Amino acid sequence: MQYGYFDNKNKEYVITRPDTPLPWINYLSNGKYCAMVSNTGGGYSFYIDPRDQRILRYRYNNLPIDRPGRYIYIRDNQTSEYWTPTWQPVIKKLDNYECRHGLGYTKISSSYKGVKAKILYFVPLEDNLEIWSLTLQNNSSGKKELGIFSYAEFCLWSAIADQRDLQYIQNVAVAKYDHIVNAIFYHLFDLSSYIAFFASNGKVIGYDCDRESFIGLYRSEENPVSVENGKCKNSQALGGNPIAATYNSMTLNPHETKRIVFILGIVKEKSQAKQLIHKYKKFDNVEIEFLKLKETWDNYLKKNIVETPDEDFNSIINIWNPYQCKTTFDWARYVSFYETGIGRGIGFRDSNQDTLAVCHSLPKLVRKRLLELAKIQFEDGKVYHIYFPLTGKGDYPDYVNPRMKFFSDDHLWMIYAVSNYLKETGDWSILKHEVDYVEGSKDSLYDHLKRAIEFTINHIGPHGFPLIGTADWNDTLQLHGPNQNGESVMVAMQFHKALSDISNIANELNFKADVEKYNNLAKKIKDHINKYAWDGQWYIRAYTDDGEVIGSKSNEEGKIFLNTQSWAVFSKVAPVDRSFQCMDSVRKYLVTKFGIKLLYPPYTRFYPKLKGISTFPPGLKENASIFCHSNPWAEIAECILGRGDIAYEYFKKIAPTSKNKIAEIHQTEPYIYSQMITGNDHPKFGAAKNSWLTGTASWTMKAATDWILGIRSDFHGLKINPCIPKKWDKFRVTRYFRNAIYDIQVQNPEHRSKGIKLVKVDNIIQENNLLPVFKDGKKYDVKVLMG
Amino acid sequence: MQYGYFDNKNKEYVITRPDTPLPWINYLSNGKYCAMVSNTGGGYSFYIDPRDQRILRYRYNNLPIDRPGRYIYIRDNQTSEYWTPTWQPVIKKLDNYECRHGLGYTKISSSYKGVKAKILYFVPLEDNLEIWSLTLQNNSSGKKELGIFSYAEFCLWSAIADQRDLQYIQNVAVAKYDHIVNAIFYHLFDLSSYIAFFASNGKVIGYDCDRESFIGLYRSEENPVSVENGKCKNSQALGGNPIAATYNSMTLNPHETKRIVFILGIVKEKSQAKQLIHKYKKFDNVEIEFLKLKETWDNYLKKNIVETPDEDFNSIINIWNPYQCKTTFDWARYVSFYETGIGRGIGFRDSNQDTLAVCHSLPKLVRKRLLELAKIQFEDGKVYHIYFPLTGKGDYPDYVNPRMKFFSDDHLWMIYAVSNYLKETGDWSILKHEVDYVEGSKDSLYDHLKRAIEFTINHIGPHGFPLIGTADWNDTLQLHGPNQNGESVMVAMQFHKALSDISNIANELNFKADVEKYNNLAKKIKDHINKYAWDGQWYIRAYTDDGEVIGSKSNEEGKIFLNTQSWAVFSKVAPVDRSFQCMDSVRKYLVTKFGIKLLYPPYTRFYPKLKGISTFPPGLKENASIFCHSNPWAEIAECILGRGDIAYEYFKKIAPTSKNKIAEIHQTEPYIYSQMITGNDHPKFGAAKNSWLTGTASWTMKAATDWILGIRSDFHGLKINPCIPKKWDKFRVTRYFRNAIYDIQVQNPEHRSKGIKLVKVDNIIQENNLLPVFKDGKKYDVKVLMG
Question: Tens digits of per-residue pLDDT, A355-380?
Fold first, then answer.
């Protein structure tokens, strides 16, 4: 069943009925002020840190789902009937409901008894506020006397305390209407918070700052007493639950259209709010800021535009996937409708991976982020697992094992991310940048990378594989125990990849000793993996604390894991024959109609030796769900093997567009990736969970652009090496690379997946498939002939 | 406005309309399994620890307020109409709604279109489960075909993770219907949790374990799709939001009555659930357990029964105050509708005070608790501020100052509580009991008390008063700073009281050196207080870190604080003239029509030197609210001064019964005390907050029984020294004391507040007003003549 469609021309996903299986949301954010909004107006806001600077409250487990939000009630003052054009929370049947999620904005429109309402929500680029711009149109033949009530429920700044310590927290915040500025101001009584303000360019004839006054006892957002009665109580909130509710009235003659802009934002000083309100009261300024926003997104997207025979592929790669990549780059796994922004902070592993696919479009931000991340590295090379954006201070999650206080993969991702950055930008200066360690000493970023390698060298287990620590990429593979001996084969492969990457970097720097050292180590670990981790048809996954193998045919459950197959190929550990063999095993055991699952068969009971992974019912999360993040690795592996059709098939299986027609099964938003899709060992096979914040975004983008389309940045140029579905006869990519534009047109007359016959740049035949670095801001015409 | 009345005969508070200003709740608990239930069926359950063993979920900030709960929907299958006899969540107008909160049980009844429903909720004494016993009666003239749906929403065991980490936690729990046992079982997939079960003695013809299946999309408890359609979906929950919903049908002929018992409980093994279900399926067993429960409460109450001319006083002292005392004794400040049971644990200070008023009725439990508490003392005499009931492990709250990691009052409360225990029980063996310190060494309880004294001796500030540490009794008086010099005059008074108490104990033990030492110290601190803390009309409250006085006429705000006046008298620090002077100042500056506020005038802005106390708007919490806990200290002080009318007036000001007719102002339950009543510096003057869990319970009970009625246990007997309102001409108290019953009849023919002319026991005139210890299980006739 379908709930909407892609409007690629406007770069919007259009939702055509409000009752989506889950809230389908959008992130409106300038990177600091962030407002999440659902297709029915639900959602919340925060500034920089969703834990300590939460502006709007959200009730995650609410019934009905998805409350509260940014609501505008419209009341026909002649009939006393009222509704919300966002459908929720009043939930009255509306005509022509439509929600358009665009890049950084959301438009919701609908009609009720002749009154058409349209709300545009967006966060301007520079100002820390959100705009709700309401347009009302009277399409009936009679005059309409309308009441307009706005509503937002404040969170008591600390999102933790807001849920935890009501007896205290509900006595520290104040919200009052300021009759001079004509705005509601909300802050902690002690002024230790920012000051939130809410204003409009309409004439406010009533307001409520106290939730219970506006809503009424035993009522909800569905039927606020103030709306029902058509007047506010002009309440202040001194303690309690502060809100921002205002009341405007409006007369609309037949066919007349009027607008009101509502502004919710935060400032340090009241005077700043005054200026901002003044600015955004003018419709023209709202318009200008909205156009600036659109322009910024267009500039972000244009750095990589693809035209393939597959419209869905184009729509994902040109619009939605890069959009999601920017969101994950901004918020990692910290804050969504499932990540509550309270506990997890910004992950080191996550954030490094999140840089991969925005590097070509946002190199400066990536540079900044990489250097920030390096600061939470310790002198011995390991890193904190998370950090908090407000302070930059590192931390570990609750479940970190105090005796193995590291994640075996975390620090290695830094090498991959920096290598990716170097290839994309050629900015070698970053390696010389001095960065602090947690302990306070400092060193160049290059030395940070070296220490990451050292940490793994110094933490090898009894079978010669890296000790798994608390866990590896798979947070739930918790193999620690009394011997502190759990080992990860996936990290061994990742280590091989990291060694190759740092060796290549050292080579560019002409650090010969390092090159030799890392090459030797790489060879050693590769040989070791092939000697001890090959299980006959695939690679094993790990060893438990007491030396039991995991991911082997000898296991009763969890015989084969996806990641040590894709990574065997991706990391170049596997010889050719084994590469095919292990990826064929993936195809045989792990591929389902909705994507590739993480392991087979699932654990049907709890295993104390494995812990986390066996705490999920079969088919959920790391226990054999289609954990989307690891699917693009299989796509990349298939590209390396030259099997373009399979890579493309895998791509399509989890592609959002392919979920659009089965939205009632998939449930989460069909325009972005989710963390997981329930596996076929579970009765809800196909149901996705935890949308938006997932490493899937970056990696699928990389799989599609770097491997399927095969346009990959390298130290000395842009490499062209596609691995496409055979049926494609051509494709075109406009790619920005180091201050030049490459207009790449690939022909595939022989319908091959792989292989290049000829490369021409501005009609000049090239020696090989590495396009030169031009750096001159010009556009180059690149013709590629496959064959 | 009145929402209900006291039914003293049945020991029930009867709520006659469901839309109370806040949920008016009851605690159903056997001390381990705890179910809170509101007058409309809202509330949640846990086992021992509300943080880590939460059974039912509650949404604290929900709209409408007070959801979810223990709901029973009734559906007329002939008309498809449905309602909930608890009013919430369907909120249909009901006839004859009534909620009777009794001791350990709640009965809710109502009628809708001729069908009368009555639900009895209770937790049996021995079994860890809750009973919902439903009785339906057809009072109409036609046959009724009814559908009965039960509903409970599970919390995902960890109450923190349930709110914090949805992307994970909503994938680890399972709920399934077991067709052999005919019950829903709910537990974590890894079986690390207990197993919750839900069953009934009705024939289950449908069920739902998955919330979304039962409720339906964009619906709520108000209109579940399963109820609307008259059938369940027989869903299982493998992950997601598990619930227990069952469907029974019932035919009721005119005037016929039928019953169904629903059972929700937890067990370690499924087999135990089977036995419990078997037991409680029998109506007779439910009846027996309910009678046992009532008997237990009667036994608890009968240890102190008063008959005074004031019926309200009797109802509070005989029923509701001791009932609340047991609740605070069980749950301290940990879990209510405002305390979310997540962060605070059981407070050391709180728990010691909570023993005071249950000591005569539950001496064994008090002994156990006192010894448990002593275990979180450190070798240097200080204590942890809180501990968690599941592990007994101590901790500090978040806001503890790392450089002054102690609360200056905590450890001293132990001396008061132990002294109270010794006087009540004469059980001197407790002092010899060896108890661990946090560090692992152990010592007798008496030595623990001595170390508490030592800690204060070793932490005296520059003005000679005890260093305040993180804070004192007033958690928000946060005077710490760079010099670590903040000082508390209240703790100095408390220290004097502790020194007197331990000196008296040492005297009984014949430890002469200790007696001398503590008496000298007591004299010293008393003199010091009188020399340096007297402000002319009252005692100052504290010194800030940089030596600024707090609670002095020289202050612009916060000139006078209640506690250093009441404690000056109570601790016997104040000489007679100053005693009257300071309590007259209290009367002049702090007494309002709804109770005595904590300070005057309130802080109108944040003071960095004071922190917490100035983070509240004036009139809330410690910033000049009527902080109820400190009102009984003023009552006691007035009794010491012999001003019975004033003591009684203060008692009545905050007495729950006095709030019954102004419930719309008071808002919280008018049968128990709340933590605070909004002060007269706030627009919501009179509105109470944070009901149930407050030290007010213990201390008001003590003030009323020990000081107003004047019946006080002492080391060698029961002292009689009333200080009553002059208008009372007599009163009678039946008091259990050390295994004898004292039937005390006091005559006051001269209408005095204080003074005793004659005491007779079994007609024998006594030498003084100290009734002897009899220990023989007999009842003694005590006649007292005031004059």
Answer: 999 999 999 999 999 999 999 999 99
Q: Chain B: give the shortest CA distance to residue A56, in Å.
A: 13
Q: How far apart are CA A407 and CA A467, in angstroms?
A: 9
Q: Do A171 and B344 touch (CB under 8 A)?
A: no
pLDDT tens for residues A34-65?
Answer: 999 999 999 999 999 999 999 999 999 999 99
pTM, to two decimals: 0.96
Instruction: Tell me if residue B781 is catalytic.
Output: no
| A171/B62 touch (CB, cutoff 8 Å), yes or no | no
Residue B564, class by beta-carbon neighbours within 10 Å (0-12 exposed, 13-18 middle, 19+ buried)?
Answer: buried
H-helix or E-strand spanning residue B164? helix B161-164
Report the DSSP pairing between strands B105-112 and B115-122: antiparallel
Residue A742 has a pLDDT of: 98
Question: CB under 8 Å to B84, separation ≥6 — which residues?
Answer: B41, B71, B72, B73, B74, B90, B92
In angstroms, rounded to a whole number, what is the distance separating the alpha carbons of residues B582 and B508?
33
Q: What is the pLDDT of residues A558-597, one digit of tens each?
A: 999 999 999 999 999 999 999 999 999 999 999 999 999 9
Backbone region of residue A145 per phi and psi (left: phi > 0; alpha: psi in -120 to 50; beta: other values): beta
pLDDT tens column, A304-324: 999 999 999 999 999 999 999
**Which among B475, B501, B514, B681 is annotated as catalytic?**
B475
Note whether A621 contacts B174, CB cutoff 8 Å: no
ipTM attached to this prediction: 0.96
Separation between Cα atoms, residue B691 and residue B671, nearest integer Å: 10
| Helices B576-589, B631-640: crossing angle, 10 deg rounding | 140
Q: Closest approach of chain B CAs to the CA of A360, in angstroms?
A: 30
Alpha helix segments (H runs only) across B281-397 = 283-301, 311-315, 321-331, 348-354, 363-374
Residue of chain B whose Cα is closest to the Cα of A91: B218
Least Cα separation, residue B660 to chain A (angstroms) = 19
Would you give the distance in Å from CA A634 to the centre of its chain? Answer: 20
- Residues of chain A contacting residue B238, judged by C-beta atoms under 8 Å apart: 617, 619-620, 682-684
Which residue of chain B is at minimal alpha-carbon distance from A618? B238
Give CA angle at B459 (B458, B463), nearest 5°.
120
Contact across the interface for B239 and A59, Cβ inside 8 Å: no
Report the alpha-carbon distance of residue B772 to residue B766 in Å, rounded. Answer: 9
CB atoms within 10 A of CB B402: 8
Q: At what angle do helices B489-509 and B512-532 cross, to 10 degrees?
A: 160
